Structure of Lipid-A-disaccharide synthase:
Amino acid sequence: MAAVNGARRPLRLGMVAGEASGDLLASLMLQGLKARWPEVQAEGIGGPRLLAEGFQAWWPAERLSVFGYVDALKQLRSLLRLRRELGDRLLAERPAVFIGVDAPDFNFGLERRLKAQGVRTIHFVCPSIWAWRGERVKTLAEATDHVLCLFPFEPALLARHGIAATFVGHPLADLIPREVPRDAARQQLGLEGEGEVVALLPGSRRSEITHIAPSLLKAAELLAAKRPGLRFVLPVVPGLRGLLEPLVARHIRQADVRLLEGQAHAALAACDLTLIASGTATLEAALFKRPMVVAYRLHWLNHLYMRRKAYLPWISLPNILCQETCVPELVQDALTPEALCEQALAWLDDPARCERLAQRFDALHVQLRQNMAQKAADAVAQVLGA
């Protein structure tokens, strides 16, 4: 039971978590909240990981699965209607606090409306104002009472704009072991033996699959021709197998590509190298101490807009957090099967370089491992005065 506004009753939270990464972050945070308040009730929009923690999903997280501004514009009317209906229900239910997990373009407007009506709001994951679209800090200040930050440099940046924030660490750094269980992962996936394994991770959204997966699959074919015996695993996000299987059938002739039902972490633990779409998955790969080639391609209008708004020379989290080009990035027209193949072979042919990268990523792992679930629960309690 939690003391809220002077009365003791089960703590009720509103929450929105979109996409696979947000669902993971939110579910781990909810574990920490349940440890502090065993009878906590959380409801709103979430995915399967949140559901497994007892979350009540009024709408599924897939409703927020869009990639880039072009896709968002196509679905704008339905997204605005969803946000309005969700806001109406939350204002009727009056949760003790609303926690928006990532998805800033959806959550900021919702949080601003709730805050204006007296509902306390927390935003989990500081938007990357240090990388691009710095003007969002004004919207963030209007929308939220507190921000939970994944990276250590973010609270000081937000403080300069009068925004209260707490560094809680990154939950993936808590979840992923520092010592990578490579042999166990290979056994789990049926990849026993000494042969090299490449993990193909083309993204978790439909548009990412459309824009990025063909290049990764064609690169696998080139690598298989140059390095016989190389094996490939491709974790499939639930609901996207029907989109990926035709692409595999179209582009793969000789490469040994095995589709997995999820199991992205097992694939990263088992592999020697990953060809991977930019996003949270690149941080996961770094925490698994794996060399990678980062792939990124958007609709050309999305890319033009983002390029004009960007502040940093990198797009992938490993490079941004290390503040140097630790791993190669292939963006837009540079993303070709030939370039992917060339960069992949450069890793596979240089074990010493791979070991240096693993050491750098281990230091990053230590920095981000902060027991996020407990720290997030402590920050929520601070906001609630509970």
User: Anything to note?
Assistant: The first strand starts at residue 2 and ends at 4. The chain has two domains: 2-169+370-384, 182-368.
